[in-house]
């Protein structure tokens, strides 16, 4: 937060307050109870196609929001808030070939890498994912 004061007739007056604007593009938010739905989602990846298999655990989203509020000097910044991986047990290359065969891939992707890049979120805010669906689903089994 940046506050600016000017002196008018010997008195300091508040001129304006400027605030950084963090615009977060948020993936599909999951609460802990949502992980039980993975048994259905994994059998039919088409159910999550429209969101490009993105997700973010609500607890990770809260951490990203807190980091954005605490960080000064961002100006107006747009960042994707999404998990590091896709919400599918099928590799990204297979998902893209099956569901988006005509979409060009502009960079090499990891086997299960998210299609909503969170690189800016990590670089500018130091955010790290703490809750992964694979760990959450296996802990509920």
Structure overview:
- This protein has one domain.
- The protein has helices spanning 38-43, 58-70, 92-99, 119-125, 133-140, and strands at 2-8, 11-18, 21-26, 29-30, 56-57, 76-81.
- Strand 4 (29-30), helix 1 (38-43) and strand 5 (56-57) form a beta-alpha-beta unit.
- A two-stranded antiparallel ribbon has the order 1-2. A two-stranded parallel ribbon has the order 3-6. It has a two-stranded parallel ribbon with strand order 4-5.
- It is of the alpha/beta class and 141 residues long.
- The protein is elongated, with a radius of gyration of 20 Å.
Question: Keywords, please?
Answer:
141 residues; alpha/beta; two-stranded antiparallel sheet; two-stranded parallel sheet; 22% strand
What's the gist of this structure?
With 141 residues, this protein is α/β, with parallel strands linked by helices. It has one domain (19-140). Helices cover 30% and strands 22% of the residues.
- Element-by-element helix/strand order: EEEEHEHEHHH
pLDDT averaged residue by residue? 88
Output the number of helix runs: 5
Percent strand equals 15-25%
From the spread of the alpha carbons, the general shape counts as elongated
How many separate domains make up the residues?
1
Could you say which structural class the secondary elements and strand pairing correspond to?
alpha/beta
Number of beta strands:
6
User: If strands are numbered along the chain, what order do they take across the biggest sheet?
Assistant: 1-2
- Main sheet, how many strands, which sense, barrel? 2 strands, antiparallel
Low-confidence stretches: none
How far is the first residue's CA from the last residue's CA?
46 Å
Q: What proportion of the residues is helical, as a percent range?
A: 25-40%
- What does the radius of gyration come to? 20 Å
